[in-house]
Each structure stands twice: as structure tokens, then as C-alpha cells.
User: What shape does this take?
Amino acid sequence: AQSVSQHNHHVILSEAASLELGCNYSYGGTVNLFWYVQYPGQHLQLLLKYFSGDPLVKGIKGFEAEFIKSKFSFNLRKPSVQWSDTAEYFCAVNSGAGSYQLTFGKGTKLSVIP
Amino acid sequence: NAGVMQNPRHLVRRRGQEARLRCSPMKGHSHVYWYRQLPEEGLKFMVYLQKENIIDESGMPKERFSAEFPKEGPSILRIQQVVRGDSAAYFCASSPRDGQSYEQYFGPGTRLTVT
Assistant: This one.
């Protein structure tokens, strides 16, 4: 069964610091990759997605992620975080081979200090 | 365009009671997915439904849990004879087509507490 690992449980940054959240998955075939964000008290929202093509994906609010197939990774980055980025971030994988269920990582809580 | 709606947002049940969780997909979406999030865990897939059909229930516990998505009305996740271990957040998602090519849009979740 496929699995998704998010390396950091809780990340604390000051405003304007750069962000990188790690995500690794265990499936060896074709994958679709997602990052979702959950702001306090709100539902999961899609930040960005990768299905095919350019492995550097740009999402909303200045976030981007890079798919590195050889490393089974899809790390999320943002050059300069804001206090409003405080949220929980989830990496998710869909194997894409007749499967539609998403496999989620455990999430990373990001706290940005003003 | 309204998003995925779930109700209730919070549900408290005593052990042995039934819990019914409702999900209305986004307008135009005919595919519904249910996920469960236990404390300190990521979301776990439970079931995938289309109108009047259960497509994949491989993530559903074998007993006490059932799901439906009727021709009319919301999708329902039913948990019979709840136990404390059922306490979790239950999320519904929808997509216009199957999730292979379209992202899933999530509702706010129902937080079930079993006392």
C-alpha cells in the first residue's frame, strides 16, 4: 500500500522567513500529487497539484512545489511566509492507476510569528 | 457556487447510538468521497460513491459503517452502535469526475464525539 511521509510535525517561522515542507511517497508508478492547506477553523483547500508536465508547480498565495521523481518527493516551498500562512499543510497522493482515493500524510502545522 | 456542505459540524453521541453524517457535493459534482481523520493522523480514505452506486468501500470498517448517495439528496455516512474509537473528524469531498484527473474539493468536516 502506498504511504505518504511528512517529515515535520510542527514548524515555527518568523515572518519573511523561507519555508520548505518535506513530502515523500512510497508508490513507484504514475502519481498525481497535491498539497492541501487547512486554515484554523476552515476546511481543506487545494494549494497546488501535479498531474504531469513541468515538475515545478506553482499554486495559490505564492506557494510552489517541485516533483522529483527519483527522490519520490514533492516538497512545498514559499520564499517569504506571512502570518496569514499559519495553518496545517497536508501532502496527498493519488496513484493515478485506476485509483481515485487520496493517501494523505499526517500533516505539518506551520506557525508564523509576526 | 456553494462549496461542499456537511452537517452537522459537530455531533455528540453516546456509546451504542447511531450517527448520521450528511454531505452535499458541489453543484455539478456527481462523485463523493468520505475520509476519516483520527487525532494526530492524516485523513484516511473510507468510501467512494457515485449517484446510487458504491464504487469503492475498501476503507470502510467491515461492521457498523455504511454509506449511500441516493439519486436525490445528500450522501449519508451512517455509523451504527458508535464506540469511543469512532470519535474523529469525518470529511466529505466531491469531484466533477473521478479523482484521477480532477482534484477533490473538501467540506468543513463533521467532528463526531462519542461519550
The radius of gyration of chain A is 14 Å. Chain A touches chain B through 26 residues (CB under 8 Å). Residues 21 and 76 of chain A are 5 Å apart (CA to CA).
